[in-house]
Write a structure and sequence with these properties.
Number of helices: 1
Distance between the termini: 44 Å
Structural class: mainly beta
CATH superfamily: Nucleic acid-binding proteins
Number of domains: 1
Order of helices and strands: EEEEHEE
Strand order of the largest sheet: 1-3-4-6-5
Mean pLDDT: 79
CATH class: Mainly Beta
Radius of gyration: 23 Å
Low-confidence stretches: 111-136
Largest sheet: 5 strands, mixed, barrel
Shape: elongated
Oligomer: single chain
Strand content: 35-45%
Length: 159
């Protein structure tokens, strides 16, 4: 059997961080995920999906992300029930996040473009590190010979 959810969307409000009586961090949040089609009026609708994340990821989410930031969530759907104060049974369906990716930096909504805590900047591929100004990679043009033949021996080829 398979229960897997992958979502990319924007936080609809700041994550709500709490702690269990045993001191375990838990954050509840909702993300808005655009539907891949438009309605009859030509407008794109969104689904608002309730999510929960536990432990260190909950603290990181609450500390670094806020309303409007785009995140990626990988997890599973879980259902639960509880009895409300008025005696009625409440049914809850939510995504339990196992992994959260911050797809925007904390200050990107205000145009700051500060690096992530993980050392990557907004808008960059997650596989490209941020270099400090004094350690930038050599930006030599690999095509400066304009397609002219180069002198290389067969011993230098990796194949």
């Amino acid at each position: 059997m398979l229960n897997r959810v992958v979502l990319v969307g924007r936080l609809t409000r700041d994550p709500e961080l709490r702690y269990t009586p045993n001191g375990v961090a838990v954050a509840n949040f909702t993300i808005a995920v655009n539907r891949p089609f438009t309605n009859q009026q030509g407008k794109r609708e969104a689904d608002f999906i309730n999510c929960v994340v536990w432990r260190r990821q909950a603290e990181n989410l609450a500390n670094f992300m806020k309303k409007g930031n785009m995140i990626g969530v990988d997890g599973r759907i879980q259902t639960r029930t509880y009895e409300a104060q008025d005696g009625r049974t409440v049914y809850v369906t939510e995504v339990v996040a196992e992994s959260i990716q911050f797809l925007e930096s904390k200050s990107s909504a205000s145009g700051g473009g500060q690096p992530f805590a993980s050392g990557f900047q907004q808008g960059q591929n997650q596989n490209q590190p941020v270099f400090p100004a004094d350690e930038s990679p050599v930006s030599e043009d690999p095509f400066k010979d304009n397609g002219e033949p180069i002198d290389i021996s067969d011993d230098d080829l990796p194949f």
